[in-house]
């Protein structure tokens, strides 16, 4: 997501370890992409060459799901359990609840981070608008003072005695 900069847009490209283009977005302000991965190094690029005059501030988040989960860690706790099937069921229910809470907390953190990025972008837009309003207000004030000074001068000149008497 582009937070600040002219146009709020940027080019984005994601390349696989084999060098294939997986995602290519031109002049987008935000985007969400989900990609099935394989082993290797991925390359992603944010390109602003079309707008070399203005710099951009961007926010991006890389979320890796199921990283390192072979199922082994999930089943390790079972070797420590000795008891009846009822006990196993209770422990499985507890583990399921804990994993559900963990997943929901992780999702909440991701959503809050995204909302912070939206807030930062909106704040930058508001500050830019504030500066623009202040500038044009000062220009307007300057024009009004100039016009009032010219009007006072013109009014005074109407009542001046222009005839010079020669004696």
TrEMBL record:
GO cellular component, one term: endoplasmic reticulum membrane
Subcellular location: Endoplasmic reticulum membrane; Endoplasmic reticulum-Golgi intermediate compartment membrane; Golgi apparatus, cis-Golgi network membrane; Membrane
InterPro entries in the record: Emp24-like, GOLD_dom, GOLD_dom_sf
Main localization, broad class: endoplasmic reticulum
Membrane-spanning parts: 135-155
Domain GOLD: 1-64
One Pfam family matching this protein: EMP24_GP25L
Keyword Endoplasmic reticulum: yes
Membrane topology: Single-pass type I membrane protein
Keyword tags: Endoplasmic reticulum, Membrane, Signal, Transmembrane, Transmembrane helix
UniProt xrefs under SUPFAM superfamilies: Supernatant protein factor (SPF), C-terminal domain
Classification via SMART domains: EMP24_GP25L
Family assignment from sequence similarity: Belongs to the EMP24/GP25L family.
Protein name: TMED5 protein
Source organism of this protein record: Geococcyx californianus
């Amino acid at each position: 997501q582009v937070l600040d900069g002219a146009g709020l847009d940027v080019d984005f490209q994601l390349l696989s370890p084999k060098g294939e283009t997986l995602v290519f977005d031109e002049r987008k302000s935000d985007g969400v992409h989900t990609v099935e991965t394989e082993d290797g190094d991925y390359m992603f690029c944010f390109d602003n060459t079309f707008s070399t005059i203005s710099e951009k501030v961007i926010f991006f988040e890389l979320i890796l799901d199921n990283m390192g989960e072979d199922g082994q860690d999930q089943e390790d706790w079972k070797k420590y359990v000795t008891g009846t099937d009822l006990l196993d069921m209770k422990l499985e229910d507890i583990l399921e609840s804990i994993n559900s809470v963990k997943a929901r907390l992780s999702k909440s953190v991701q959503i809050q981070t995204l909302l912070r990025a939206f807030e930062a972008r909106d704040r930058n837009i508001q500050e830019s608008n504030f500066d623009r309003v202040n500038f044009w207000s000062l220009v307007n004030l300057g024009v009004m003072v100039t016009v009032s000074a010219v009007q006072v001068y013109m009014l005074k000149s109407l009542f001046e005695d222009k005839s010079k008497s020669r004696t």
